[in-house]
Design goal:
By secondary structure, the protein is mainly beta. It is built from two helices and 22 strands. The protein has a single domain, classed as 6 Propeller (Neuraminidase).
């Protein structure tokens, strides 16, 4: 998880326009203490980190080219600066994976899909298995067989929660890039396909997807022919409508401030603003701006 955090490099604060803001790094893991498993986490990429009840959770990924996929679950408590490996505390553990969905609602964590394996091999198959983790019992639960209308297998998609609903958008199945949109009712355990015809983003994989102030946002990624994007879309889950917030039609000023085209980026909500982290632009990984150090 250390490398996953350090690889999130480029920061652009955004609502509809963007403004840079300086940040100070605390250093590579030097301020952390470790509990339960004394070994530090291995370096990892394509793992995911989310916030839940004031703590950061990291799950999955792989340690680099030629390395096996990971099934470890870690929690970081900023109050105690403690990183804890929670994996062995649960009787059930989701198969190791990368390029999956990872989100939280009311303290529970949810993992869906991605590229998985069950034998610790380097590569795996694209999955649509579905798990939840309960912080009160420290246990994973397999929801795959008790969820209705579960989406088809996919990877590199977006997943985020608004209230008691979980949303999945886009991704790819290894052959085709998707723009399918699903809503999961956590109480009824039912998935519903959101049919919005051509009103929203095009097919998208490796995009950023986040919730903020009751809405959902899509930024960047690659379309069905592999073209990198940097448009920003907003979805209202009450009215079920998409609004395009930025595009190639922006003013020259806003276009100059908009983050460049990218995929496999990080997108999150920070105090009402959207933050875009790193990604790749087709020729390499996007690096830190000079004033973010």
């Amino acid at each position: 998880m250390k490398s996953a955090l350090l690889c999130l490099l480029t920061l652009c604060f955004a609502k509809i326009s963007w403004a840079q803001k300086q940040r100070s790094w605390l250093g590579p893991n030097n301020f952390l203490t470790f509990q339960h498993n004394s070994a530090r986490p291995t370096s990892s990429f394509r793992s995911l980190v989310i916030e839940s009840n004031g703590k950061a959770y990291g799950f999955g990924g792989l340690a680099g080219a030629g390395a096996p996929l990971d099934d470890r679950l870690y929690v970081f408590d900023p109050a105690t600066r403690t990183l804890t490996d929670l994996t062995d505390l649960s009787k059930v553990t989701p198969p190791a994976r990368k390029s999956h969905g990872f989100s939280s609602s009311n303290g529970k964590l949810f993992v869906f899909g991605g590229q998985t394996n069950q034998s610790g091999s380097i590569s795996g198959s694209i999955s649509n298995d579905f798990y939840s983790w309960d912080p009160s019992s420290l246990e994973w639960k397999n929801l795959s067989n008790i969820s209705i209308n579960i989406p088809s297998p996919r990877q590199n998609f977006g997943m985020a929660c608004v209230n008691d609903r979980l949303y999945v958008f886009g991704g790819d199945n290894g052959s085709n890039v998707l723009n399918e949109f699903y809503e999961y009712n956590i109480s009824s355990r039912e998935w519903n396909f959101i049919n919005i015809s051509d009103a929203g983003p095009t097919q998208r994989t490796g995009h950023g997807f986040a919730s903020a102030e009751g809405n959902l946002y899509v930024f960047g990624g690659r379309d069905r022919i592999g073209t990198l994007q940097n448009d920003l879309w907003e979805f209202n889950p009450v009215t079920y409508t998409w609004t395009r917030l930025s595009s190639g039609q922006d003013s020259s000023l806003e276009a100059s401030l908009r983050p460049q085209e990218r995929s496999h980026l990080g997108l999150t909500n920070l105090r009402g603003s959207l933050v875009v982290f790193g990604g790749e632009n087709g020729s390499g990984y996007i690096r830190v701006f000079p004033d973010v150090a």
